[in-house]
Amino acid sequence: MKKSVFFGALTVAGVAAGVAAAGTLDDVKARGKLNCGVTTGLVGFAAPDANGEWNGFDVAVCRAVAAAVLGDASAVEFVPTTGKTRFTALASGEIDMLARNTTWTFSRDVDLKFTFVGVNYYDGQGFMVPKELGVSSAKDLDGATVCIQTGTTTELNLADFFRSNNINYEPVPIETNAEAQQQYLAGACDVYTTDASGLAATRATFEAPGDHVLLPEIISKEPLGPLVRHGDNEWGDVVRWTLNALITAEELGVTSANIADMASAAGGNPEINRLLGTEGTLGEMLGLSADWAKNAIAVSGNYGEIFEKNIGESTPIGLARGLNAQWTDGGLIYSPPFR
Amino acid sequence: MSDTHAHSVAYVRETQLPQQPPPSTAAGPVKWTKDNLFSNIPYTILTLAAIYCIYLILSGFLPWALNGVWNTSNIRECREVLEGATGGCFSVLTERWNQLVFGTGYERSQYWRPTLAFALLFVAAAPVLFQKLPKGMLAFTAIYPFLAFYLIWGGTIYTPILAMVGFVVGYVVYSRLVAGSFAAGFFGGLAAAVVTWWLGGIVVSAITPDETFLAAVPSRDMGGFMLNMILGVVCVSLSLPIGIALALGRQSNMPIIKWICVIFIEFIRGVPLITLLFVANVILAFFFPPGTNFDLILRVIIMITMFSAAYIAEVIRGGLAALPRGQYEAADSLGLDYAQAMRLIILPQALKISIPGIVNVAVGLFKDTTLVSVISMFDLVGMIRGPILASTDWNGVYWELWAFAITLFFVVCYGISQYSQWLERQLATDHR
């Protein structure tokens, strides 16, 4: 507890409550630390390791933004949030950005007043059932008990899907993914439904993964991405273009291995030069240093490298790129040009 | 005697026969078994059924516990080692031990800090818990909160020193003014302490070096069982005096004090703890100016303390109500004023009656500290549900972790309960 905290209670009254919020970017720079909201733990996306070091696919976005803004990938305060506390934490200013596999929806964007800056993972809701149930399509699930996480879009999608197909189900509400796994294995529900990435990750940890099948239906679009508060477009731009820089880096073949070379002097490809700050003034326009994108990419590599390291096929989670391949490879991952 | 019958009886035994042990069917374990387990047919059936149940439980539990794996680095390795045999992956406990106990805040070389604070807790608590120890030890108890704060949170040593100085200044002013009136003493002392903290706060921030002897650990990174212990110990020790004050306030003749206490107690008791925690975590942030960083642990401590203080107040009110009216009148007739009567006559008796209830609240409170996992703090339960079960290494290990958590909580709660029973026997002066 810092001393400011210790006396915080006493001085709160003295501080004018109506202090106009300065820009988040200035706040972050002044603080020297980025407050990034993450999940309390989701396999592959965010979890602290045995040394307390946060790792994961969403965590990499936080670190990239910290590196772009502050030049230091470790200048991040990871604030764990649950499905229920994440939006209040962001709205109240406790965190500067939220990278917590959050689905971009109309009402979250418009009604809750957040700005989704992009999509870092295209997901969709699927179903997992034990093989012995002999079910081959989600439409055969009439009367099934379904384990479902509360407070998420999956809950709503599930209701929509069953209603539109005119079949019944019995929901078993669950708080966390870990709990759902346990309930599912214990037979408390016939079906477990969540994002397909989560199902694959979950199945990979079973003792006998072969005894469970993922049904072919994907019943929803779940574009997951980082978000910031409405109304601070400068800050939104910083986060958006940091994410875009990671994606563009993969498209242009900039990797953690060759970035030092490429950034040392202007090369033959003008877009790489603009991205890495050896040409043009993109960093200045954002209010950052010229090498902001270089710093962001150098942390854990480009988008593809981050994917491979945290959730890709070489990890126990073993997700294929699928929809999350670059647009040049038939996927949906696409960044506007750096110009 | 033997002479009398010498002629008429052929043989008279002159000594008593040595006692024979009873037949094996009428004594010892055989008899006990027969009397208690197989005395008639229904009993026999129940006994056999119970033995079968115990067998079922042990045949599942023992291979799991004894065949456990303690030194693999993830669940896949653990399953390879087990090769399909039944056995627990206890290596999650050894690998994540530090996280389970201390959270993620400390460097590996810094674990001695919370450990030392924990060990000193017993030294500090001893003179309060056991009256026979020398009273001089209470001095250490008074210093302990500041020492523990310094050890656990680190940072500059001036902060705890300043906090202590504030209390001392407040007490000095109080003791000067209290002779006039209690209210003047109380509010004068409070004001003096606040002014000291405020002025000192400015000085401390000015003289704090960048590098401190003990590295500062942010509250956000506190976790594991240590967080449960911090919340439990701090909240119980704070809520006891507050609860006493509330209980006395509720019985006061002064209407404002009485109604403040009644409304506070009834409001807090009417609200679930989890909603108070949600308020502390998410709602309060809206009320503070942007950039204010009011420590999360402090917020949670305030909420839990308020909650348990209201319950303890009601328990103590029960104790006060159980005292015969004559005790109050006796105190008055001796010419004692209110403070003396309470301190010397009423409270010692009322608190003794209230011990089981207070301990009940304390044990419940200690277990309720796990609720902070719902507001995304990594206490023991939050640590298990969040980081550990969500790591690719340990996703899928449940029983080992929850068994560990249960064991830790059971040991502490059972210890508290045993202490309270011992204390009741010590204080049983009525020779019933």
Question: Can you describe this structure?
Answer:
The complex is a heterodimer of chains A (339) and B (432). Chain A starts with a helix and ends in a 29-residue tail after the last helix. Chain A is an alpha/beta fold. In chain A, helix 4 (57-70) packs antiparallel against helix 14 and helix 10 crosses helix 14. Chain A has a five-stranded mixed β-sheet with strand order 10-9-11-8-12. Chain A has helices at 3-6, 8-11, 24-31, 57-70, 86-91, 106-110, 153-164, 177-185, 196-204, 233-252, 259-264, 270-276, 282-286, 292-300, 303-310, and strands spanning 34-39, 47-48, 54-55, 76-81, 97-98, 114-116, 121-123, 125-130, 144-149, 169-174, 191-195, 212-214, 222-224, 227-229. Chain A has two domains: 24-122 and 224-329, D-Maltodextrin-Binding Protein, domain 2; 125-220, 3-Layer(aba) Sandwich (D-Maltodextrin-Binding Protein, domain 2), CATH 3.40.190.10. Mean pLDDT of chain A is 87; it is low at 1-20. Chain B is mostly helical. In chain B, 70% of the residues lie in helices and 0% in strands. Chain B has helices at 2-5, 28-36, 41-66, 75-82, 91-95, 97-102, 112-129, 137-153, 158-177, 182-207, 224-250, 255-269, 273-287, 296-322, 325-333, 338-368, 380-388, 399-427. Chains A and B meet through helix 1, helix 2, strand 2, strand 4 and helix 5 of A and helix 4, helix 9, helix 10, helix 13 and helix 17 of B.
